[in-house]
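re: ur question from the group chat, yeah i did fold both. here u go
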Amino acid sequence: MQYALLIYNPDDDVADQAQRPIDPGIAAVLARPDVTGWIRLHAPGSATTVRHQEDRTLLTDGPFIDSKEYLAGLFLIEADNLDGALAIAGELLQEARPGTAIEVRPLLDGRFRGA
């Protein structure tokens, strides 16, 4: 089964991810065959939110939600079940910055079909 691991960092850790090297411990997890894809996102201030409202398209600079955490990246993994996905998330948390949270969600059928 495919799962998405949504990586959230504290909002006080907004240095642009693209400028940071990947931690060697995280890189080791990313290199495993059960990690089928991953992305890092630029800082939340680089976002533009597109919203449909009253038959108009509205653009807002920055992320739409105000939160104490922001979505920093996304990992796509293959795991036999939720316990397997949680184990991978736990490994990543051991290497992550303090305050990082990982949301584990199963994927619905779609175009993504692993590597």
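okk and heres the other one u asked abt
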Amino acid sequence: MKWSWRLGWIGGIALYVHATFLLLLAWVAIGEYQRSQSPAAALSGVLFVLVVFATVVLHELGHALSARRYGIHTRDITLLPIGGVARLERMPREPKQELVVALAGPAVNVVIAGLLYLWLRVTGGIPGPGATWTSIFESGFVGQLLYTNLIIVGFNLIPAFPMDGGRVLRALLAMRSGDYPRATETAARVGRFFALVFGIVGIFFLEQPFLALIALFVCLGAAGEAAAVQTSAMLDGVPIQRLMITDVQTLAPDDPLSRPVRLILDGFQQDFPVVEHGTMRGMLTRAALLKALAERGENVRVGDVMARDFQQASPQETAEEVLARLRACGCHSMPVIRDGQLLGVLTMDNVAEYVMVQAALRGDRARFVPA
């Protein structure tokens, strides 16, 4: 994710923090200082937010480690002002597996809340036998953290994408009907309904713009999830040879960079396979071409600029498999090769065009989601 910095690794998963998270810390510090005129209070507020987000990281690790049980890798975890996001390479397509993965995150917060409650009982931190949740919240740092973890559980279990509750709802619907795309569309409609409720309540009743921001996040997440599943369903089992471009302009290692420049201006191709004596030798991407032009000019050999280590696909693979690899590597194009011979190139653009054509034939309004 852009504007993110890596903090480190946890369990083999990269942990990032988004730049906007620092704005949240600044907002909390300023607000606490204005309320109390105390630097110590401002520091305490920031510390509390950091501890809360530490539990958010554990929440996301719950998802990631449960997904790992089913052979699903987690690319990274990113901390945002609205919470954490674990980027799984894919969600389980088995409803029971998705149910386990979706519930693993809130289960972590339930365990944390339970441990904090036991700590308060042992240390006498609970005000008394008739204590309310409000009194527990006001009992100090640990009580506030306990209360916040319960809020995280409740909020995440709202049946709206992209929250955990939306995935739980989809899994339950898919287990009942056996139709994963239809279950996704139903769960997405429920998510859009909750987004509308959040927006109305946040703007007109509570006057909380943050709730309206969450509504927008939920609405976009629901739409994106539905579109992604529709795309996956349309590509399921489709051989890559049905989608790949076969009319491909290729380069030779000894060609000057002026040749791909002319090819880009004359046509639509962005990335170029580099072929020598009928064998694929490398890949020249548009980004690498532009960088080389800026640094070394257009008389440089293609062979001096091309990538010799590049992602490639075989004609036996399905479109969905190759699309997942395109997303993972951040590539725009991937050559399809058999025994070193170039057969064609698959790009994000022609995958999108295939999906749009199939959607039109079905009378759907599906759209392609590249990532």
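fwiw on the second one: The chain has a mean pLDDT of 84. The beta strands are 4-10, 13-18, 74-80, 83-88, 272-276, 279-284, 333-338, 341-347. idk if thats what u expected
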